[in-house]
């Protein structure tokens, strides 16, 4: 690129109508001139050849992505991860903010993903290592999306559960049980105090435990638990399936007794979720398979908060995400970034409930609560409830007892001396996280 | 895990009915005992808690994923990439083959992805770095999928193009042109000798160049080129959009004159492609945005051949993929793995045409052909045709001239001495790759 070519991909914020742009933060490592690398990054993701041969025209003013800010730091030891790359020259670690004109693709999730996570981003000359760190949308762009139907407040109203976290549990054994004993486990967990008993993300509509049968059994068990406790409950059924079955399975599961639905967001695709959202009559909950494949490493891929935002935009009321502690291999600051991405203001889009999960139990509740710093989160043990040595009702009770202690300002360990379910949980799971 | 727990996740191949399993090759780095790490990997992706509390049962024989083979090599310098992780102990680099019972989830792409690229794989204790290297299916599993409708042979018949590669071109400028001048570029490229003029993967249905208008203009231009050359041509329209618009846009584009359709596979989702395949009346071509985000690094993520296989399975007739040369940041052996994944036997699933692309021109054709080692590939320049100094018709002609030279056993550079379009291409693009 000539200096003039490069300049066409830079702009001052004040020179742009920011309503026409989404903003992208990238970190990358490049070989050669960082300023030229950033111009290539803009060119490749927007108008890579901005004029016809022999025609005096320039599509860049309207159609080019433009660098708004750039910070480059020499990296004398070279690329942090060895990769195939044509680039030569001194290596820099760079952070850029880019304004990308959304009129190039419109308010469509697949086209948005193609622009911001596509060939232009991951095959830009000189940049073998790059991570999309964050994404921000103008309100006029967000207004084209429905976002969560119920959101945090709607879910709380459905459960009549206020001023505390929402207590989920993943029914275990997750794979292998037929509907009747599976429903019995759900019933026990509701009786013990869970708000929401859920299918594992791996348990969907299978011949050895068909969704219709399971939803009917869990629906009965849920209503029985509601009658006996006088408290509202949710059975969260996993309808993850081929996209042309999502709407039919929504109807089937809800008719039979599910009152919230789980979808594995990336495997199904965010656009399919947006389609389902238009039809949904119950809260939609996201699970996180596949996301780690592109979000774990600090130097490459896509930061998980980007996908948290997109899941919220697509219409999920709840986003389950990898939680705290080294077991889930996600730095604490990243979990908190994702929690914030659920709850922070997002134009007309409602907040969704963050559920940072992974190997939780009564022993981890206080830590999660302190880290999140508010009651607006979901807590989702699996074995911490269903592997409790006294059974699932006791497992669920141990969670509620832990919360009662925290809410009353009593040390959880002290409270356990008079609450055997909690004591058993601390003993069984206390050392695990 | 106890030694007995671990043993429940190992099996001899001869002890299994292999029709019940898909086979997965993983490479991973773990801290601690590799044999136990591999057992966890199986447990987490299948039946993580294989019995109820207080019930004498074991779901592992039917539902557990099982290690078939394991090879561990000490890695005295520790993990190759620093990551958050609970694991401690000596580090090993490990390769395993795992048999995963597909009855756990069925013949459904989202559930398959959840099983083999999900939480169980990427959050297995002791394994912060893992890559799914390959996947193999029994024929009975494949039989549930349609696969390509046309495949390599069907595409050749549509074009009446045999015994040579298929010549694609990405119309450029990719973003910014209205339909009429865009169609004129397509027309020029067909006249010059392209088989297929295509929309860029970033150009879909946008208000400044609506798909209906574009397909009509390109359809007219295509028919005109066919009349004038007496040769069949394809306009490949990009219908990437929200999944509930794929079928309507298929119909709209085909009615107006497109005779093949481009879909950005990952942004739309493989399952949505499978849905579209059921309805499609023309060849479906995959583009590769997003895939690099999880496939570039040797130590982490998902090998791109896994997604090549899945795109073929979902029903694509053609798979465009990052091609040869350091510009595309993909090692040569990986490109060849993806080419093979398109063409090798796959039970009842037809072969699809591999199109290894990226910064191609008349100057790179011979190298691509020699590396692929057969004529069964597509060649897809962008600027190599539409940025040719003599214009797109000359750009297309330069590609055909290069092929004529190769097919006649004449050195391309020699052939250029009597073919000015080829000479201009070699001069303009020759040093680029």
From TrEMBL, chains A, B:
Keyword Kinase applies: no
GO biological process assignments: carbon fixation
Transmembrane spans: none
Domain Ribulose bisphosphate carboxylase large subunit C-terminal: 151-429
Domain of life: Bacteria
UniProt cross-references to Pfam families, sorted A to Z: RuBisCO_large (PF00016), RuBisCO_large_N (PF02788)
Enzyme class: lyase
Enzyme Commission designation: 4.1.1.39
UniProt keyword list: Lyase
Ribulose bisphosphate carboxylase large subunit ferrodoxin-like N-terminal domain boundaries: 33-141
GO molecular function terms attached to this record: magnesium ion binding; ribulose-bisphosphate carboxylase activity
PANTHER family: RIBULOSE BISPHOSPHATE CARBOXYLASE, RIBULOSE BISPHOSPHATE CARBOXYLASE LARGE CHAIN
Similarity-based family: Belongs to the RuBisCO large chain family.
Annotated protein name in UniProt: Ribulose-bisphosphate carboxylase large chain
């Amino acid at each position: 690129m000539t200096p003039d070519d490069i300049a066409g991909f830079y702009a001052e914020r004040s020179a742009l109508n920011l309503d026409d742009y989404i903003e992208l933060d990238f970190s990358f490592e490049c070989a050669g001139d960082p300023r030229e690398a950033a111009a290539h990054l803009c060119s490749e993701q927007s108008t890579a050849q901005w004029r016809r041969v022999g025609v005096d025209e320039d599509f860049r003013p309207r159609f080019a992505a433009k660098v708004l800010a750039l910070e480059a730091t020499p990296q004398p030891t070279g690329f942090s991860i060895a990769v195939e790359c044509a680039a030569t020259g001194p290596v820099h670690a760079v952070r850029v903010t880019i304004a990308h004109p959304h009129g190039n693709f419109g308010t469509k999730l697949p086209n948005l993903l193609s622009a911001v996570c596509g060939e232009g981003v991951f095959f830009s000359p000189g940049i073998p290592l790059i991570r999309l760190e964050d994404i921000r949308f103008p309100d006029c762009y967000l207004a084209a999306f429905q976002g969560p139907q119920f959101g945090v407040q709607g879910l709380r109203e459905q459960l009549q559960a206020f001023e505390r976290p929402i207590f989920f549990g993943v029914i275990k054994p997750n794979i292998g049980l037929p509907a009747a004993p599976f429903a019995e486990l759900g019933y026990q967990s509701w009786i013990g105090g869970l708000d929401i008993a859920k299918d594992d993300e791996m348990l969907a509509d299978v011949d050895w435990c068909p969704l219709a049968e399971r939803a009917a059994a869990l629906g009965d068990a849920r209503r029985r638990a509601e009658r006996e406790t006088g408290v509202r409950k949710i059975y969260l059924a996993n309808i993850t399936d081929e996209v042309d079955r999502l709407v039919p399975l929504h109807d089937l599961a809800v008719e039979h007794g599910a009152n919230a639905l789980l979808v594995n967001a990336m495997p199904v695709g965010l656009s399919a979720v947006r389609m389902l959202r238009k039809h949904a009559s119950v809260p939609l909950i996201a699970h996180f398979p596949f996301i780690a494949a592109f979000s774990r490493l600090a130097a490459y891929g896509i930061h998980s908060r980007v996908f948290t935002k997109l899941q919220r935009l697509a219409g999920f009321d709840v986003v389950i995400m990898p939680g705290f502690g080294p077991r889930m291999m996600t730095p604490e600051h990243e979990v908190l970034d994702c929690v914030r991405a659920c709850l922070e203001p997002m134009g007309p889009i409602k907040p969704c409930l963050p559920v940072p999960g992974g190997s939780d139990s009564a022993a981890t509740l206080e830590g999660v609560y302190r880290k999140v710093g508010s009651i607006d989160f979901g807590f989702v043990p699996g074995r911490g409830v269903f592997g409790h040595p006294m059974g699932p009702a006791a497992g669920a009770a141990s969670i509620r007892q832990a919360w009662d202690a925290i809410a009353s300002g009593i040390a959880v360990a002290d409270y356990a001396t008079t609450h055997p379910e909690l004591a058993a949980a601390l003993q069984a799971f206390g050392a695990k996280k």
